[in-house]
Structure formats: structure tokens, C-alpha cells
Specification:
The protein has 422 residues and is α+β, with helices and mostly antiparallel strands. It has helices at 26-32, 39-55, 69-72, 82-88, 121-127, 156-185, 188-203, 212-217, 219-222, 266-279, 293-312, 319-335, 340-357, 360-419, and strands spanning 62-66, 78-79, 94-99, 105-111, 116-117, 135-142, 145-151, 234-235, 254-255, 258-259. Residues 365-420 form a coiled coil.
Length: 422
């Protein structure tokens, strides 16, 4: 099981000027230059990739992967659909080679339990300047070698224009939000505005991706390359209180006068609605004002996936996973999310799991399971060796049958010579 958890960037329970970081990391520069593909461009690249896949040689399995921010920035993790992994990829961790269209090679680490590429994928992504919306066709030309075909979402000119415009939009929006808050609420809000600036700088460094933990429990989620989203961000027509929400049809995610449903896939929105229903309130209602819509959407998505991961946990779940989930939830609490109930539930599970892991029976069970896994792996190796030996034996049998007639003929000739009169 694997997890992609957002890094905790709050070290105190309140924001203040004194707590602002004094350095500028290279990550901020990279995140400022992010390119977010439009839905139209993303679909166009995906369509071209599907067309390319359709003409590839059918004897080599292939899969199309549209690139998201989690694939090309921050986390640099690439997961494949579970059915494809189970059918075509190794059942254990393995080095997998990526070969680009120019024949250059990159070595990556395939993690079987996580159904994806980890170490080495970051270098491939950076070297090929992959961006959000690019579509890649992975063609398995050997058991551990992918031929990678890249369909660019934008040409070089488009990329440069979007690069500049995205950066300008980010800077203008943050500045406008801060200035507006400062003028409206005066001195008391001055610290809050400075806090927002600090929060935004740090928050953009968060790898806001969907937990691969939740995906590893759901085959359907892993095989869904592009979640369906709602129509675009729009202005809020009227404020709706939670007690006015009668069903998912009435449920909208409101942030600073905007409806941001378009930033959250439908299946995550439905799960988030269920979470809100358990607490009878909008969990995001008290988030810091002026936060970027994509950041808010990422926090909500991450909250849902942490909740899913908690529900899917068991006594064999490593303790550090519980700690990572709690660290992320604590960050959300400091931002204003009402997720204390998840932390309380997680704390209860952590205590039970800790006591269970101290049990002698649990330790024996884990040792026995590990030993069984080792034996099964040895059996797979021996079975593969047996198949190889059987193949070699058949080849030798065929060779013996082919040569036997010549050997008999020579033997008969020799016997005649031996038995000839002196």
C-alpha cells in the first residue's frame, strides 16, 4: 500500500508575521510556472493518444495515461490501471525501462503493491518537459520495457503563452484578495492578510494529489483515467445553508462567493456530501478567506480520500500511515476545515491498532503471513524454473529423435566391420 500525503507546512496553531518563512525555495518558482490544461485541450490530446493506440501492433499491450499535476509536478508518481498491471506487469517490484520516441532510455522502479512507477519517473517527466494535459501511450514491447509515445497538449508557442498568463493570473488574484481584505476589515485583518500571503506561498508547495492509498483499494478508481467533473466555476447566486440541502442535487461547494464544483470530480463530491451529512454542516465553511479555488478543491479531495483510506484500514496497516493521515488532517484543521471528527476517529483506531500490534498473537500472525508470502514467492520461482527445464527437455528430446537415425546407421556400419572375417 502506498500513500501520497500532502506535506504539513503549518508548525503553529495560528498565523502571524513572525512565523513567515524567510527563504524562497525553488519549488515556488516551479509551481508558479505550472500550466493547467483546459478541458478542451486535455480531451484533444487524449483523443489523439487513443487514435495512436488504435494503430499500434496489437501483440504489444498498451495503455493511455493523460498527465495530471500529480504526475508531472510535486509528487511525481504515476499509477497504472489495476487490470492492466495484473495482466501484463510483474507481480513483484521490478526495474522497468522507459524508451522514448528517439530511442533514449530511462530506468524506473515499478512498485507492484502500488501498481505504478516511482523512482526514475521524475527524471523522465522533467527531461521530457511533461505538463498537465499531455497524453502518453505506454506500449509494453518487452516484459519490463515500455515504449513511450508522447502527445503534447500544447505546441511550444502555446506552452510559453500559457506559462506567462498563468503566472500573471496567480499573482494578480492573490494581491487583489489581500488588498480587498485589508481595506474592508482594517487593522484587525492586517495580520490575517499577511497570514493569507504566507499560507498561499506555503500551500502551493503542497502536493495536492489524490491518495494512491484509496486507489489501491478500488480497482474501478484506478482504472478511471479522467474523472468526470461538473461545468466551470461560476458566481454564487445565493448563499445556501446546509439545513436547506435536501439531497446531492442541492449540494454545492461555495468558496468566497464562487461555486467550485467544477474543480472536484463527481465521485469525490458525492463522498464529500456524505461526510458533510454526518456532521450536518459544510466542512469547508470556515476555511481562511481568499484561498485559491484549486487549493480548496485539493483540500476537500484530500479529506475525502483520507476518510476512504481510514475506512479501508485494518490491523495490519502500518502505524506511520495513521500518523501521516493525522498530520494532513491537522493541517486542514489549522486552515479552518471541520475535520476534528476524523482526527478523533483516527485517534481511536490508532490506539486499538497499537494495542493489537503489542499482542503476541498478532506478532505471530504477521510473522506467519510474511513467511507464507516468502514461500509462495519461492514456489513461483521454482515453477518458472520447472517450466524452463521442461522446455529445455523437450528441445533435447526433439534433437535426439532427429539424430538417432544417423547414430543407428553408423552403429550398424561399425558392427559390420567388427564382425567381418579376418
Amino acid at each position: 500500500m502506498g500513500y501520497v500525503i500532502m506535506t504539513e507546512w503549518l508548525n503553529t496553531s495560528q498565523f502571524s508575521v513572525e512565523h513567515r518563512p524567510r527563504h524562497k525555495s525553488h519549488k515556488r518558482k516551479d509551481l508558479d510556472s505550472r500550466v493547467y490544461a483546459s478541458d478542451e485541450a486535455r480531451l484533444r490530446a487524449k483523443k489523439k493518444a487513443d487514435e495512436l493506440q488504435s494503430i499500434l501492433r496489437s501483440e504489444f499491450p498498451s495503455v493511455v495515461k493523460p498527465m495530471k499535476q500529480s504526475h508531472v509536478t510535486g509528487g511525481f508518481w504515476l499509477g497504472f490501471p489495476l487490470p492492466f498491471c495484473r495482466k501484463h506487469l510483474p507481480k513483484h517490484d521490478e526495474e522497468i525501462k522507459l524508451v522514448d520516441e528517439d530511442g533514449h532510455e530511462w530506468m524506473t522502479k515499478y512498485l507492484s503493491a502500488k501498481s505504478g512507477l516511482s523512482s526514475g519517473w521524475r527524471r523522465f517527466s522533467i527531461d521530457h518537459k511533461l505538463v498537465d494535459g499531455d497524453a502518453l501511450v505506454f506500449q509494453l514491447i518487452k516484459p519490463t520495457t515500455f515504449k513511450v509515445h508522447i502527445i503534447r497538449v500544447y505546441g511550444p508557442g502555446d506552452h510559453e503563452i500559457l506559462d506567462r498568463s498563468q503566472k500573471a493570473i496567480n499573482v494578480k488574484r492573490i494581491k487583489a484578495d489581500i488588498d480587498s481584505n485589508s481595506q474592508r476589515e482594517g487593522g484587525e485583518n492586517q495580520i490575517k492578510c499577511q497570514s493569507l500571503d504566507t499560507a498561499y506561498e506555503n500551500a502551493e508547495e503542497i502536493n495536492m494529489t489524490i491518495l494512491s492509498e484509496a486507489a489501491s483499494y478500488s480497482e474501478n478508481d484506478s482504472d478511471n483515467p479522467e474523472p468526470e467533473v461538473l461545468d466551470g466555476i461560476r458566481l454564487l447566486e445565493s448563499v445556501i445553508q446546509f439545513d436547506q440541502v435536501k439531497g446531492i442535487e442541492d449540494f454545492t461547494i461555495q468558496v468566497d462567493g464562487l461555486v467550485v464544483d467544477s474543480e472536484i470530480p463527481k465521485h469525490l463530491k458525492t463522498k464529500y456530501y456524505d461526510l458533510c451529512c454526518t456532521q450536518k454542516c459544510f466542512l469547508h465553511d470556515h476555511l481562511i478567506e481568499g484561498m485559491n479555488c484549486k487549493l480548496v478543491a485539493g483540500i476537500i479531495s484530500e479529506t475525502v480520500n483520507i476518510a476512504d483510506a481510514i475506512k479501508a484500514s485494518n490491523l495490519t496497516t502500518p502505524m506511520h500511515h495513521f500518523a501521516l493521515w493525522d498530520k494532513s488532517l491537522l493541517t486542514f484543521v489549522k486552515l479552518g476545515m471541520r475535520v476534528d471528527f476524523l482526527r478523533a476517529h483516527l485517534d481511536k483506531l490508532t490506539n486499538i491498532a497499537f494495542k493489537s500490534k503489542e499482542s503476541a498473537e498478532i506478532r505471530r500472525y504477521l510473522r506467519a503471513r510474511g513467511e507464507r508470502d516468502r514461500v509462495e514467492e519461492e514456489m513461483r520461482v521454482l515453477e518458472a524454473k520447472m517450466l524452463e527445464l521442461e522446455k529445455t527437455k523437450r528441445e533435447l528430446d526433439d534433437e535426439i529423435d532427429t539424430l538417432k537415425a544417423d547414430v543407428v546407421e553408423h552403429e550398424n556400419e561399425f558392427r559390420k566391420a567388427v564382425n567381418a572375417p579376418w
